[in-house]
Design a protein that fits this description.
InterPro entries: DNA_helicase_UvrD/REP (IPR000212), HelD_bacillota (IPR048228), P-loop_NTPase (IPR027417), UvrD-like_ATP-bd (IPR014016), UvrD-like_helicase_C (IPR027785)
GO molecular function, one term: 3'-5' DNA helicase activity
Keywords: ATP-binding, Helicase, Hydrolase, Nucleotide-binding
Number of helices: 28
CATH superfamily of one domain: P-loop containing nucleotide triphosphate hydrolases
Enzyme class: hydrolase
CATH architecture of one domain: 3-Layer(aba) Sandwich
Strand content: 15-25%
Distance between the termini: 58 Å
Bound molecules: adenosine-5'-triphosphate
Largest sheet: 7 strands, mixed
EC number: 3.6.4.12
Number of strands: 26
């Protein structure tokens, strides 16, 4: 082994030398290219002959400008490439590779040693790979096989052979700290070490230890939809991010980072995962939250509720007399049935029911809503719906043109002319002269009548501009009223409704109309409202996006998926989630993503399940899996730790004292990220105030942007997707977690812990913990006074 290690260290030195050499070369290239770009920019105009005297000269100028721009863009692109390569090589200096396979390809005399790292490295002759990129086809053998027959797929076909041995290396600053023959060692030593580390400010890449089932997700390449249902901590987010890196490598000639969109649950999560791709030498994909999209599209319409507002209501307002109606509304408005109902409603609008906004000008109606409706439905019924709206817009513009002519003669225009300031007058005068083709130095003057007529034209045109803009953006369609009508008249508007609505539909309608009339759009109405808008006016889709990945997908409603699908019609979709962590009320009964199969059809859909959990120690996983039905299938990774502890306390004073003491203790043990997790924002705010004695304690709210290390108080639904060295569940009592409906939220809170989990309960312990206690997965402390 020593001899082997020595040989490997020597090889590593050799690789490091070549790396240093290549870095030197690329540095020179990058500096030269940079200078070229800078010089080019500086002298750009010197090489362009700008001549606009006649058409030929102008054409020549345009061609020469375009050529210059192309050369500049090429130089910039070369410089970008070199900088990217330089960054990869520098990263490799720290750790050139992490794995090796000895693979004997069928038909070849001996096994080849294939070293695998975050990027590839050729020997100076350019003939051999010293290191293969982890995304290269051959590297998949490293992740997918144990010694024995193995194969991998290349664009030219499948390569078969035998994997003789497989190695993992721990290299730091050019030194091999250890190497493991993973064909011999039991358990995954490197993974043990990686998982034993502290939680970081940012998520880390997992390329050195990707597991076989995760690799299937990363390299998946068939069909339009990949669904990943995975246990808490099973690496769904990690797999999603490495998948993006893989796609950017495999399709480097066709797909760029800005053609990939990751839907994240909240702003803090966005910063938490933002380092993984740069760490892998790739640019970050676009990251959005669904809420950001809604805010952007719905701004200026209603007072729009966000998902946290809805969740807080669900968690804290059960005494509200309208609670049950709202819960029924939340569930129904999330469903595919409601999606179909909206589609049917939209179809019904072909025959009648459209609502319009009268065009008013200076207090008078130019075209009334009724006239528009008559015109809209008076046309040939075979005329396509969307065509009819455009056609109506054209008609309205004509009506405005007519009105414009009449307006010019009205007294208000004369008054406006008289009130023009000198500057406005001069400006208008100059413009009119120009329009009439009078040169600046010409003596010729504009006739008085002509001038007045022109001024009147200008004034009326300017005043009518907002109206014209409103027409071009189709604002004459009264979308708010059309949406409202769905609820107000729904019981009369069509047979398509029958049998499709829940029992509480009449109450739902009443509640929705009330909210809309008060100017409020509840979160459950946001996507349906937008959907109806898009179905009426035409979808504002984005065809340049090639891949959409949706993390924490259990929190999206089937209706939202339908919507996202239409938003990105050219994209493939990867959906990752865990129904045991579904915290939003609409998913209360959902257990899997089967409902999504019909999005693209079964032949375009593949589902992968991840059962192994990596985040937490074995005792923590044994505890958390006992909190959910069917949790037995979740496999903990063999990592030791203490059993979670449940401490019952007599009152809140003792609770806060115990938490404060525990935080001090955990800090002294070296835990860097400690979360006190509460049920809701309301509970978090109370705890934060009571625990203010804890040094540098931070409160996380839904407007928090950055995930910070240290001690935080956080509501469970915001902790989704992230992890902490130690988690303290603020109050796991019956009073807080009384209902079965809170099980998923409670599970989400507990599964955030990597190394240490402590639960408190003020008074009687929640029934959600019954099984964990009876099966002995939690150590129950004496009651603290
Ligand atoms: N193959 C792996 N190698 C090293 N670490 C891994 C691996 N897979 C997962 N992990 C680690 O496990 C933790 C959980 O991973 P991740 O957050 O991706 O899981 P998740 O399934 O998205 O979890 P959740 O659903 O609970 O949000 C992270 O710290 C991640 O780095």
């Amino acid at each position: 082994m020593d001899k082997e290690l020595r040989q490997e260290q020597e090889r590593l030195f050799h690789v490091m030398d070549i790396l240093a050499e290549q870095i030197g070369m690329v540095e020179e290239d990058a500096a030269r290219q940079r200078k070229e770009v800078v010089d080019f920019r500086k002298y750009f105009w010197e090489d362009v002959t700008v001549n606009q005297d006649n058409f030929d000269d102008l054409l020549e100028t345009i061609i020469s400008l375009r050529q210059q721009a192309e050369v500049l863009s090429l130089s910039q692109s070369s410089h970008r490439q070199s900088s990217k390569r330089l960054a990869s090589l520098r990263r490799m200096q720290e750790n050139p590779y992490f794995g090796r396979i000895d693979f004997a390809e069928d038909g070849l005399p001996k096994a080849e040693r294939i070293y695998i790292g975050v990027s590839s490295l050729m020997d100076p002759s350019g003939d051999d790979f010293l290191v293969y990129d982890w995304r290269a086809p051959v590297s998949s053998v490293y992740y997918d096989f144990t010694p024995g027959p193995a194969e991998y797929t290349t664009p030219g076909g499948t390569i078969r052979g035998e994997l003789k041995r497989k190695w993992q290396y721990l290299i730091r600053r050019g030194q091999i700290e250890s190497m493991f023959d993973t064909s011999l060692t039991i358990g995954d030593e490197v993974l043990q070490q990686v998982l034993g580390q502290s939680a970081d400010k940012h998520m880390r890449s997992i390329v050195a230890t990707i597991q076989q089932e995760q690799n299937r997700i990363i390299r998946h390449d068939d069909g339009r939809l990949l669904i990943v249902q995975g246990a808490a901590g099973s690496g769904k987010t990690s797999a999603a991010l490495q998948r993006i890196a893989y796609l950017l490598y495999k399709y480097r000639d066709r797909i760029t980072a800005d053609q990939i969109v990751l839907f994240s649950p909240n702003a803090m999560f966005k910063t938490y995962v933002s380092n993984v791709l740069p760490e892998l030498g790739e640019e970050n994909m676009q990251q959005v939250t669904f809420q950001e999209y809604l805010d952007h599209r719905l701004s200026g319409t209603y007072e729009v509720e966000d998902p946290y507002g809805q969740l807080e209501y669900v968690l804290t307002a059960s005494d509200d007399p309208e609670y049950q109606t709202r819960m029924a509304a939340i569930r129904f408005k999330a469903s595919v049935s409601f999606f179909e109902l909206i589609q049917a409603y939209r179809s019904s609008l072909e025959k009648g029911g459209m609502r319009f906004q009268s065009l008013r000008f200076r207090g008078e109606t130019l075209v009334s809503a009724e006239e528009m409706e008559k015109k809209f439905y008076g046309e040939d019924a075979s005329f396509r719906f969307s065509g009819r709206i455009e056609w109506l817009a054209t008609w309205l513009n004509e009506r405005i043109n007519e009105a414009e002519k009449l307006e010019r003669r009205k007294p208000w225009v004369q008054e406006a002319i008289e009130l023009l300031s000198n500057e406005q007058y001069e400006l208008a005068y100059a413009r009119i002269r120009k329009k009439l083709g009078l040169k600046e130095d010409s003596e010729e003057d504009v006739e008085g009548d002509h001038l007045t007529a022109e001024l009147a034209r200008m004034i009326v045109r300017k005043k009518l501009k907002p109206l014209r803009e409103g027409i071009s953006t189709l604002q004459f369609v009264n979308l708010n009223d059309i949406y409202r009508r769905l609820y107000e008249d729904s019981l009369h508007i069509g047979p398509w409704l029958e049998g499709k609505v829940p029992d509480a539909w009449a109450d739902i309608c009443q509640l929705t109309v009330k909210n809309l009339d008060e100017g409020r759009l509840s979160y459950e109405d946001t996507t349906p409202f937008l959907l109806l808008n898009e179905l009426i006016l035409g979808f504002q889709s984005n065809v340049s996006i090639r891949h959409v990945l949706i993390d924490e997908a259990q929190d999206y409603s089937p209706l939202q998926f339908e919507f996202i699908k239409r938003l990105f019609p050219a994209a493939k979709m990867t959906v990752l989630g865990d129904f045991h962590q579904a915290v939003f009320a609409h998913a209360a009964e959902a257990v899997d993503f089967d409902v999504l199969t019909h999005l693209y059809g079964a032949d375009q859909t593949e589902a992968i399940t991840l059962q192994r959990s990596y985040r937490s120690t074995k005792p923590i996983v044994e505890f958390t899996r006992s909190l959910i039905p069917g949790g037995e299938v979740i496999e903990p990774f063999e990592r030791n730790g203490n059993k979670p502890v449940l401490t019952a306390v007599t009152d809140h004073e003792v609770l806060h004292r115990s938490i404060s003491d525990q935080v001090v203790e955990l800090k002294s043990q070296g835990y860097a990220t400690i979360a006190i997790i509460c049920k809701s924002a309301t509970e978090s705010a109370v705890a934060f105030k009571a625990l203010s004695g804890i040094d540098e304690l931070k409160l996380v709210t839904h407007s928090s942007i950055e995930y910070k290390q240290g001690v935080v108080v956080i509501p469970a639904y915001l902790a989704k997707g992230i992890e902490f060295d130690a988690v303290l569940v603020n109050d796991a009592s019956t009073r807080v977690y009384e209902y079965e409906s809170l099980r998923r939220l409670f599970y989400t809170a507990c599964t955030r812990a990597m190394h240490h989990l402590q639960l408190y309960s003020v008074g009687t312990v929640s029934p959600l913990l019954e099984r964990a206690i009876s099966e002995g997965h939690v150590q129950v402390d004496e009651i603290c006074h």
